[in-house]
Amino acid sequence: MINLSNRYTDLAIEAHEIFMNSSEAKQQAQEGKTPPGVVIENAGDEDVKITRVRITSRTGEASIGKPMGNYITLEIPELKDNNEDVNKKTIDALARELRDMLKLKEGSTTLVIGLGNWNVTPDALGPKVVSNLMVTRHLLQYVPEHVDEGVSPVCAISPGVLGITGIETGEIVRGVVDRLKPDALIAIDALAARNMERVSTTIQIADTGIAPGGGVGNKRMELSEQTLGMPVVAIGVPTVVDAATLTNDAMDLVIDSLMNESPKDSGFYNTLKDIDRDQKYELIKAALNPFVGHLIVTPKEIDDIISRVSKVVANGLNMALHQGITLDDVGRYIN
Amino acid sequence: MINLSNRYTDLAIEAHEIFMNSSEAKQQAQEGKTPPGVVIENAGDEDVKITRVRITSRTGEASIGKPMGNYITLEIPELKDNNEDVNKKTIDALARELRDMLKLKEGSTTLVIGLGNWNVTPDALGPKVVSNLMVTRHLLQYVPEHVDEGVSPVCAISPGVLGITGIETGEIVRGVVDRLKPDALIAIDALAARNMERVSTTIQIADTGIAPGGGVGNKRMELSEQTLGMPVVAIGVPTVVDAATLTNDAMDLVIDSLMNESPKDSGFYNTLKDIDRDQKYELIKAALNPFVGHLIVTPKEIDDIISRVSKVVANGLNMALHQGITLDDVGRYIN
Amino acid sequence: MINLSNRYTDLAIEAHEIFMNSSEAKQQAQEGKTPPGVVIENAGDEDVKITRVRITSRTGEASIGKPMGNYITLEIPELKDNNEDVNKKTIDALARELRDMLKLKEGSTTLVIGLGNWNVTPDALGPKVVSNLMVTRHLLQYVPEHVDEGVSPVCAISPGVLGITGIETGEIVRGVVDRLKPDALIAIDALAARNMERVSTTIQIADTGIAPGGGVGNKRMELSEQTLGMPVVAIGVPTVVDAATLTNDAMDLVIDSLMNESPKDSGFYNTLKDIDRDQKYELIKAALNPFVGHLIVTPKEIDDIISRVSKVVANGLNMALHQGITLDDVGRYIN
Amino acid sequence: MINLSNRYTDLAIEAHEIFMNSSEAKQQAQEGKTPPGVVIENAGDEDVKITRVRITSRTGEASIGKPMGNYITLEIPELKDNNEDVNKKTIDALARELRDMLKLKEGSTTLVIGLGNWNVTPDALGPKVVSNLMVTRHLLQYVPEHVDEGVSPVCAISPGVLGITGIETGEIVRGVVDRLKPDALIAIDALAARNMERVSTTIQIADTGIAPGGGVGNKRMELSEQTLGMPVVAIGVPTVVDAATLTNDAMDLVIDSLMNESPKDSGFYNTLKDIDRDQKYELIKAALNPFVGHLIVTPKEIDDIISRVSKVVANGLNMALHQGITLDDVGRYIN
Fold first, then answer.
1. Are C164 and C53 in a shared domain?
2. Propeptide-annotated positions (chains A, B, C, D) (predicted)?
């Protein structure tokens, strides 16, 4: 569910970058210290770059502005180009990271939730992933003899959004979880990134729980390992940038570029340096009024991109959850 | 959810017609008796003909083959022609009958369920009705000052079907009902008719509960006033005829027509009379094998028809549930 | 464009079967003669059975009821099951047969026409194939440096149907052909079969030209090698059976079965034998009135099937027209 | 077809505003002169504000940057709110202005072209308008007895875009025009606005011809009264703002606001005044690289908005072209 209520990013990796650019972090770096409570691990290659961010303490939480837990980011610059080889590498990496995070026993039942609004193109990622998923729980229940070895029980729903159902998404998910009692919950969602280059090229996996329609600030609706007693993994792909954020960041680049061109200590340089960047952001929001929070920036080709990326994410899930089968088998299970 | 597992109709009015044509019923009629346990009431006009069938006893149940309760049928021959006047009369009649059946107190919360598979055109009626519904529960909760007088809390979900979710539809609905505790439940579903002329021209309202995906015969999943402690109303529109039923009925017409043309007591007449109609039905099913239960007969224009009829049914619901507003207000509430 | 105006099939292979069952053909067979003017050739295997019917004379035309020319049929019983291996074999066979029929020189420009109504699920095959096609003419014109070796100029339109555009489809195609002057024309269309088993399991390729919306009988609108001076190939897949035809054929099977069970020369046997099958067909049409020509029989899963089969047909075309590339390259060219 | 190749607007009314803010125009105004070659006329009310801009000379062309001719703009702030009353007023005004511009004789045949890419939500306006159009040419040709008095022959196509068909859109339209020889051509297209407030609230009608996919600069493909010998009217609705333009304009607002707050002749004020705004625009484009020309800014609800606005525009056309009918009759003619 794309939530543009603040200028901050849904991606831990971007939040970390922003922190690393802060004066606080730069000073720590000069002193040879790494930020406490944040552990970074790199893997993968240039096609699929993997970054594992672990936030291990309250200090880490405060620095990054994200709850404690594990955040794995796959960066795949060619993900939106529909390159068959890159797609396969992405599916493999996603399946591997998911399996490591979920640590499911054989035969575990997984419930997959496709968050977001299917009527809003860039928000439809979750429901589209669900529609490409190998849903098998009912087959194992009613016709197990027709199911391949190594297929696990997977079920899935796309609960819609508050504006469509009139019901908090968390209520629907809770209701289903209470009756089904699955062994793990996976939620798929479209995210907002800060940097346009991340749109449709980044996949984030996190084990810190979800708060669908979180802007409303409803603690009761949080879905996490703590509240549900089962692993809760969120998979997100940024599909938009908030217009105010984009404008603000472009403006910062322009100011930096003008400063680079001016002699240091010239009046012009100092004036630019003195621009209050927070005040500027408020001005931009005023300029975009009454559209703030409602304007999204996307590539023109977003309809196509969403449908391609959804297939890749769904197949990553299919390979992670059904360990006995290969990509060639998936077709027979998809409606 | 279109269920073609038997040749019988989902419509009480058709079941009643079939019974009235049986030799048992004909004999009763000759004796001046009406079938016990079935009360029929007619209303409406030639544009929107209303038939209220009440099954009041076990004998009635046995005759008609439907559970005890109220079945209201609207027959609107021009419903599929998109005639504005007829649409408005239908919406009025549907709203009136629904209100009478639901008898809701002001401010009651209604949960509407759009049953069926949105990927199968003639089965998508339920989800399409939901997408044209005035969903207002969240508005009354969070921004009541923006809601017109006389708008009641309505929420709605389209839970999908077992083949898509891997979860019994009844489980999902139960889970949501348990958390939301609405005052009434309304389920919308596409039906199978026996007579092609009923397709997209008939709306049935019943208060006897629903068993989504009922073929499976899962008592636990029945949703009714008895099991849930709140009114449960089902609204259905036939959108298909089962191919085996159509073939069988067409064949009966042919046989009858041949019999009419032959001299009574001729060998030919007697031969035709002796054809075992049940055996014939079995032969037809064999002839259509392996497609039996999977072949549907629909008008070519079914995609259009479904989308028109969905709007009419949704507006009947909108007018029934939000008694303070008019059709002209609906647009402002629909996404 | 699905045309249900008569009970006959769009498939040459079915028309040939019907002829071979006629008393005329049976007598010829007894006399050791093959039907003159019809040459049959078989190829392929049990996964993809290939039958090449060549009608070489007016006598052949009269027997089969189809114009002189070549008709190639691929029969793929598992086509609708989304089996990856069978899909690949089908794509290979389709590409090979198409290349042999088209005999295009390198660098030839092909115009592909997706016939049918995109709003009517079983009629949307043509437009869906076009949407999965590698369209390249503009790339070769404007950015040839970004196009792989062995990619030929392909362009494509889905002209809609008379009821949507108000224009004879043939007029639109003619208008575009006149301006573009391609080297070959390929038209894709959904067909009506006689036998339910052929639906979504058969692909027909023919070089005899097309008459879109042919029921209207407009000679001026025929698109063929003769009228356009370029190869015109039609690719068709049956997606429906006409309800009257289905009913009629099921009834014949029932009658045959009853006859088999009765002692020969019994009154019953003779009565059944004497049923006038043409009169019976008229009675069925009357029984289905006013729906005759508007009722279609399809599998319930037709939406899914259409989208799968469209991809296979599109890839057969992609492999036939762009001889320098492989299936793995297609993704990069599809929007 | 949304073309983001430059920062300028598709709307004559915005181009005129930009000109009126230029130093050149301000000086003319001080001298009491109005810009030569531009005639402005206002009409309508606050719900539907009508501005008729007529560019009458080369000087006017040069000032505004748009070709000579008539540009009528309807501004409807509530167009995106689905208010029934405002919709009806808009349809009336649009029908009236269109009739005045087209001046068609009774019985004239109109060809409507839905420009744009149906797979790209904000570009799908043209095809969506066409799908809500009363297409009647074929009915008047084949079943005139079923057509109401006062219905004129209308036909319509959505030719797609170069990237989908591989064919210049102008070629397809030309081919169809050559064969059909209609009396008038109307093209519907999604536009890019400069000001976010115009998105989905403004309808522009112009009689200056169209150059579909015009960025390519292909004179041969221009469709205008001059090249075709019949009235050519373009109807456009802005659905996006280019991200670079939005960023640039927001930045200008920020700079202006900072200047307003600083004492005039302060160093800061002068520095801001000296920022080269063209250089700034180049910097923004560099900052948005490699996305320039591919990023669009839209309201999140664009899918809904497009479908509502399409209906209003289509009904404006229906009322303009079929003068004998009312809005209540339209339903019976739409598929």
1. yes
2. 1-10
Inspect the interface and report whether the beta carbons of D294 and A297 lie closer than 8 Å.
no
A contacts of D272 (beta carbons < 8 Å): 271
- Residues C285, C215, single domain; the answer is no
CB within 8 Å: C301 and A83: no
Which residue has tokens 């794995």? A72
pTM score: 0.88
Amino acid at A231: P
Whether A192 has a pLDDT exceeding 70, the answer reads yes
pLDDT, average across residues C44-63: 92
- The answer on C189 and C256 residing in a single domain is no
Interface of C with B in 281-300 (CB under 8 A): 283-284, 286-288, 291, 294-300
D304–B331 C-beta distance less than 8 A: no
Whether D295 shows a pLDDT value over 90: the answer reads no
Subunits touching C (CB < 8 Å, at least 3 pairs)? A, B, D
Q: Is D149 in the B-facing interface, judged by CB distances under 8 Å?
A: no
Q: Does residue D256 sit in the same domain as residue D325?
A: no
D161 inside domain? yes
In this predicted complex, what is the ipTM? 0.89
Residues B181 and B220 in one domain: yes
Q: Are C177 and C262 within one domain?
A: no
Count structural domains, chain C.
2
Tens of pLDDT, residue by residue over B61-120, are 888 888 899 999 999 999 978 888 999 999 999 999 999 999 999 889 999 999 999 988
Please state, in angstroms and as integers, the Cα–Cα distance from residue B292 to each residue in B287, D145, D195, following that order: 9, 42, 59
- Assess whether pLDDT exceeds 60 at residue C292: no
Residue of C nearest to D142 (CA): C216
Taking an 8 Å cut-off on Cβ atoms, the answer to whether A335 and C81 are in contact is no
End-to-end CA distance of chain C: 25
pLDDT digits (tens, 9 = 90+) for A38-73: 899 999 999 999 999 999 999 888 888 888 999 999
Report yes or no on A76 lying in a domain.
yes
**Helix (H) / strand (E) containing A297:** strand A295-299
pLDDT band with cut points at 50, 70 and 90 for residue D97: very high
How confident is the model at residue A179, as a pLDDT? 94
Q: What percentage of chain B has pLDDT greater than the value 90?
A: 49
Of C81, C83, C332, the CB nearest to A81: C332
Interface touch D166/C153, C-beta < 8 Å = yes
Measured between CB atoms, does B301 come within 8 Å of chain D? yes
Residues of C in contact with A328 (CB under 8 A): 84-85
Is there a single domain that holds both residue C133 and residue C264?
no
Q: Is A287 within 8 Å of D250 when comparing Cβ atoms?
A: yes
On whether the CB atoms of residues D74 and D88 are closer than 8 A, the answer is no
Mean pLDDT, chain B, integer: 86
For residue B318, being part of any structural domain is answered with yes
Residue B5 CB neighbour total at 10 angstroms = 13
Q: Report the sign of the C-alpha dihedral through residues B19, B21, B25, B29, in that order.
A: positive
Whether B152 and B178 map to the same domain: the answer is yes
Residue A5 included in any domain: no
Condensed to tens digits (0 to 9), the pLDDT of residues C130-158 reads 999 999 999 999 999 989 999 999 999 99
CATH of the domain at B214: 3.40.50.1450
User: CA A291, CA A284: separation in Å to the nearest integer?
Assistant: 11
Output the CA–CA distances (angstroms, integers) from residue A118 to A129, A163, A164, in the order listed. 11, 12, 10
Task: Supply the Cα-derived Rg of chain B in whole angstroms.
Answer: 21
Element (H, E) at D53: strand D49-55
Chain B residues with CB under 8 Å of A152 CB are none
Domain that holds residue C220: 12-244+295-331
D51 reaches A (C-beta below 8 A): no
Give how far Cα D124 sits from Cα of B78, B327, D73, D239, D311, Å. 32, 28, 21, 10, 13
